[in-house]
Structure formats: structure tokens, C-alpha cells
Amino acid sequence: LRARQADAPTGPGRTADGHAVPLLANVGSAADAKLAVALGAEGVGLFRTEFLFLDRKSAPTVAEQTAQYAEIFRVMGDRPVTVRTLDAGSDKPLPFLNLPEEENPALGVRGLRLSSVDEGTLLDQLTAIETAAKETGTPVKVMAPMVATVEETAYFAARAADAGIETRGIMIEIPAAALRSEHLGAEVDFFSIGTNDLSQYLFGADRMSSSLAALHNPWQPALAAAIAMVVDGASKHGVKVGVCGESASNPEFACVLVGLGVETLSMAPRSIAGVRAQLAEVTLEQCRAAAAAALSARTAEDALAAARKALGRNK
Ligand code: PEP
Ligand code: MG
């Protein structure tokens, strides 16, 4: 393994037979973006904007936000950046939003749902994102977190279009959105599957609970089934599908994602090298065989073993 890592290819992500899989970074700060560039990220697939504002007691102004976004866009230069609008609430409370206490914040007013009680925060953010994109010339896309319905998808796409943002998408992290991806796909250009929350809601298992780790195992066949459903729904409208949850950073599962038809993978910058090296060793056909094997497995353990075999890793 050591020898393989030393020989790890650099440059863009691709399989041994040349199928391109852009490897993108998840970032929350300019420091993360610098690390992403240093480690060869081809862009940012998830810019977690709430991380910039976790400590603020008062709402950031449009000018303050513009400056912060522009700083990160400049680091990325002409590499594409997907900005996620605020995913506040639940595990990421923002003090300045003054939200009411909730019994079950993971199931509460969080992500895009905040705009139903405070639309101004979303509109200001979209304005700041578009201003910073124009200022820097970086190709910027926006996406909304925690979307469940067609109405929410259409609402977000319309507000982003009003702000002048051309490429608009949503995260798929609620099972209802996965089930109805064909209908949601009619409203947007891309989907980014957030497997951390998708697993949480699919299995009814708190993502913060270490005792439930077995249910968050990416090899749980139900997760692959949900992803396959999203890819299928997206294909009806030519909607691009990426994955930006932790599962994309598991090198073998990344191959399964590619085999399922996922086009881009976004992960912590330090995970990119391992995924790049693994992809370079397998063909697209092997990835497809691994995906089929994982989908038809009965258990997570069987899915991992079957995928490994298809990837030629059972020696
Ligand atoms: C996810 O839910 O998978 C995701 C990428 O978003 P976050 O971890 O920020 O909720
Ligand atoms: Mg999430």
C-alpha cells in the first residue's frame, strides 16, 4: 500500500481507462481552499458557508459576505466552486438567526427551510455570492441544503435566478427528495447528494451517534439503492449528479459511486489523493460491476466483499 501511495498519480481524477471523475474539495474557509488547491482539487464541490459565520452574534452584511466569498473564489481561480447557501440549524446553530428552540433540531427549521421564516438572509446571501463571482471571474454555482419538495426546489431556483446566478442545484439529503428526484430535477441543473444526512434520514439514525455507526456505514445497500434512484431520476432531465458526503472519501466506495453513474466526487482535501489513486487502478466497467454487486448484496458486509471482488481487490 505504501508503494502504491508513493506512486499515486497527480492531476485530474480518472479511471485506468480514462473515464474522467473530477475530484473536488469540501471547504469551509480560505485556509481549506488553499489546502485543496495544494492537494490538487479540481474545484470546490461543497463550500459550507455557515462555517464562516458560526461565531457571529450579528448577521454579516452583504458587503462582509461578498468579501469573504471573494477571498475563497480568488484562491480557487478559474476552478469551479459550488457554494451551498446557509445550512444553519441542527448541528450548526447560528446565534444571529434567533431561531426558536426545537425539540428535534435535525428535523426542524434548518437549511433552506429557514427562508420560510427569514427570506432576507437567503436573498442577501445570493446577492453576495453573485457579486463575489462577478468580481473574481470564478465559475460559481449555488445549491440549497435540506430540500424535500418540488416547491422548495422551484423556489430556490427562482431566487437564485433572480440574483443572476446561472447554475443552480440542490442537495439530495432527504429521502423524499431521492424518491422524487425526477420531478425535482426538472427545476435545477445539478444534484449533490449529501450522504451524511441522507444516511441519517434514510436509517433514522442520528449522524452524531457513534453507537449507530453501523447504520452510517456507506456499504449499507439501502444507501446505494437511494443513490441509484437519484441518478435515474436525474437522467430524465440531463441533471448532473455529484456526491459530497463522507462516503465519497472512501476509495472503494468512490468506485461504486462512479459505477452508479455519479459524475463528480467532493471530499475533505486530504482524502483526494487516496481516491485518485484507487480510481486510477480500476476501469469504468469494474466500477459498474462493483456498483451492481453492492446493489444486489443483502448486507453491508456482503456489499463490501462483493464490490472488492469486482474491483480486483480480493487478492
Ligand atoms: C451531507 O449531509 O452529506 C453533507 C455533505 O452536508 P453536511 O455534512 O454539511 O450536512
Ligand atoms: Mg447535510
Structure description:
The chain is α/β, with parallel strands linked by helices. 43% of the residues lie in helices and 11% in strands. The protein contains 13 helices and 8 strands. The protein has an 8-stranded parallel barrel with strand order 1-2-3-4-5-6-7-8, surrounded by 6 helices. Strand 3, helix 4 and strand 4 form a beta-alpha-beta unit. The longest helix is centred in the middle third of the chain and has 18 residues. The protein is globular, with a radius of gyration of 19 Å. The N terminus is likely disordered. The structure holds phosphoenolpyruvate and magnesium ion. Magnesium ion binds next to helix 8. Phosphoenolpyruvate binds next to strand 2 and helix 8.
* Mean pLDDT across residues: 94
Provide the low-confidence segments as ranges.
1-7
- Rg from alpha-carbon coordinates: 19 Å
Order of helices and strands: HEHEHEHEHEHHEHHEHEHHH
**Strand neighbour order, sheet with most strands:** 1-2-3-4-5-6-7-8
Give the fraction of residues assigned to helices: 40-55%
Number of helical regions: 13
The count of strands amounts to: 8
Bound molecules: phosphoenolpyruvate, magnesium ion
Largest sheet: 8 strands, parallel, barrel
Strand content: 5-15%
Structural class: alpha/beta
Can you tell me the overall shape? globular
Q: Separation of termini?
A: 13 Å
Task: Set out the fold topology.
Elements lengths: L1 H5 L16 E5 L2 H9 L5 E5 L13 H15 L4 E4 L34 H18 L3 E5 L5 H13 L5 E5 L2 H5 L1 H5 L4 E4 L1 H9 L17 H15 L4 E4 L7 H10 L3 E4 L4 H8 L4 H13 L3 H11 L5
Parallel strand pairs: 1-2, 1-8, 2-3, 3-4, 4-5, 5-6, 6-7, 7-8
Helix pairs in contact: 2-3, 3-4, 9-12, 10-11, 10-12, 12-13
Subcellular location: Cytoplasm
Main location: cytoplasm
EC number: 2.7.3.9
